[in-house]
Amino acid sequence: MYRADRFSRTDHSGHTPAIVTTVALSIIVIVSACVSRGEKKKVDTTALSTPPAVVTPAETATGEVDSIRKETPVVTFASAQTAYTQRKYAEAVESFDAYVKVHPDNPFGYYMLGLSAWKQGDLDRAREALEQSLALDSTNVKTLLNLGRVLLDQGKPDDALARVESAVALDSGSAEVHRMMARVESALGRPDSAEVSYRLALSIDPNDSWSMNNLGLLLIDEGRYDEALMPLARAVELRPDAPAFANNLGVALERTGHAGSAAEAFRSALAADSTYAKAQKSLARVEGKTDETPIDVAQLAAQFNDSLQKSAQARLSVKPPAEKPEP
After folding, report:
1. pLDDT tens across 207-233, in order?
2. Which string of DSSP letters, residue by residue, matches 170-232?
3. How many CA atoms lie within 13 Å of 260's alpha carbon, on the beta-carbon side?
4. 3-state helix, strand and coil shares in percent for the chain, rounded to the nearest 5
5. How far apart, in whole angstroms, are the C-alpha atoms of residue 142 and residue 133?
6. 3 state SS for 36-78
7. Burial class of residue 4, CB neighbours in 10 A (0-12, 13-18, 19+)
8. Cβ neighbours of residue 225 under 8 Å, at least 6 residues apart?
9. d(Cα 145, Cα 167) in Å, to the nearest integer?
10. Is the pLDDT of residue 59 over 90?
C-alpha cells in the first residue's frame, strides 16, 4: 500500500514530477473500472437473490406422491387374526397371504390362511395352505383335523382318512380326534366303525355335544330312531342355542310317534334361528298333532348323561399295561 505523502512530495524546484501525474491518472482509471465492476456485480447479485422453487423428493411436477416414498403397510398376525375373528374372511385371506410372504417359515400363518380360505369357501386354496403348514410342522393335530374337514368338503374321504389317522396316532386321548375319525368313517360308508368312534369320543368327553348330535344323526340314518333319542336329547340340553340339534331331535321324536313333542323341538330350533328352513318345513308337517304316547325328553337326557359318566369313569379306571423291562 502506498502512503499519501509519497504522492504529494515535490522537488526543490516546486514542480510536480511527471511520474506523479502519470501515477495519479492510472489510479483514477483503476478506480473507475472497479466501480463499474462493482455495480455490475451488484446487479447480478440482485438477480439471484430470489431462490428457485424447491420440489421435494416426495412430489412430482404434477403434485402426485412419489411411489418411492410410499411405505407399504405392515400386516401383523394380530391384525389378520382380528379380521378372521370378525368373520371378514376375504380380508383375512388377503392379510394372511401377505403375512406368509414375509414370514414363510411360520406354519401357523399358513394354518390361519387355510382356515380363512375354507370359511370363504375356497377349498382348493384352503387345502394348499394347510398342506404348506403341515410341510413346516407335520405334528400339528389341529392342522391335520382341519385339513381332513376340507378334504371331506371336497368329497375326498380317502385322503381325509390318512390325515385323521395321523392325528389319532399323535393324540389318541382327544375327543375331537375320534369325532373327526367317526365323520370320515361315516363318509366312507362304515357306520359301525363310526358309531364306535363317536362313543369313544364321548367316553373321553361326556359333554361333547357335537359327538352326541352326530351319533344321533347316524342312528337316524340307520333307522334306529329310539336309540337316537337319548344322545339328541342330551345334546339339546347342553346346547339349546344350536338349531340343528333341536331339529334332529324333532325328527327322531316324529319318527317314534311323538309328533307333539317333535313340534316343540322344531319350535325350539326356530327360536334359536328363525330362518332355519329345515325346522320351518318340519314344523309345518307336525303342527297341531299330539303324541301317541307321552315321553319325557329331560329324563332321556339325564339317562344318557348317566351312562356317559359311567363310561368315562370305567375308562379312567383302566390302567395301561405295564411296560416290560428291557433285557
Report:
1. 999 999 999 999 999 999 999 999 999
2. H-TT-HHHHHHHHHHHHHTT-HHHHHHHHHHHHHH-TT-HHHHHHHHHHHHHTT-HHHHHHHH
3. 7
4. 70, 0, 30
5. 11
6. HHHHHHHHHHHHCCCCCCCCCCCECCCCCECHHHCCCCCCCHH
7. exposed
8. 219, 252, 255, 256
9. 7
10. no
Nearest to 207 by CA among 308, 317, 318, 299: 308
Helix (H) or strand (E) holding 8: helix 4-8
Residue with cell 362304515: 190
Widest CA span in the chain: 162
Give CA–CA dist 51/56, Å, rounded.
Answer: 15
- C-alpha distances (whole Å) from 178 to each of 166, 167, 182, 260, 280 are 12, 9, 6, 35, 33
Q: What is the pTM of this model?
A: 0.74
Q: Amino acid identity of 302?
A: A
